[in-house]
Amino acid sequence: MTGAVRLEPVDEQNLEPLLSVAVAEAEPADVMPPVAAPAGWSHARREAFREFHRANFGGLDAATRTAMYAILAGGEVVGMIRMTRRDEPDAVEVGMWLGRSARGQGIGAVALRELLNLAAAAGMRVVVADTAPENRGALSVLDKCGAKLREDDGRVHAEIHLDSTPPAP
């Protein structure tokens, strides 16, 4: 792992570095909702990325019910992790992406553990995630953080109860 891993809320200060990592090291479909725009990282898609993240600056209690955090390793932005309130009052869904150069170094598990701490501090008791069975990186991170995994209809559903302590790194 390259330096200490920490999370900081996505804001105007780290939005452009986050976009730079996304453009250089990820596919648009992996880091943002689909938009009608030319393929690849077109100008329109970059603008949509900015607007998508700006819409979530308000955090869990704002209209989007989402808190997004830039993942920093060694002081550099390497990806993003988010939590979104679900309809259940004490549950959030988590999603994360890392630039290709940050994958496989343990950064994802450290970032998820930190997000679990933030979720618990916000009064959440359950964190869920949904991914594809072929997403080995996500499955490994979820497993390392104590998620119960089940496969259903070609998707893997994960659940972490925050009243139990996540495993140590």
UniProtKB/TrEMBL annotation:
Keyword presence, Transit peptide = no
Q: Which PROSITE patterns match?
A: GNAT (PS51186)
The coiled-coil segments of this chain are none
Taxonomic lineage is: Bacteria, Bacillati, Actinomycetota, Actinomycetes, Micromonosporales
Q: Which InterPro entries match?
A: Acyl_CoA_acyltransferase, GNAT_dom, N-acetyltransferase
Query: Residues in domain N-acetyltransferase?
Result: 5-169
The protein's name is GNAT family N-acetyltransferase
Alphabetical keyword list: Transferase
Check the record and name the CDD domains matching this protein. NAT_SF
Give the organism the record lists. Answer: Micromonospora zingiberis
What molecular functions are annotated in GO for this chain?
acyltransferase activity, transferring groups other than amino-acyl groups
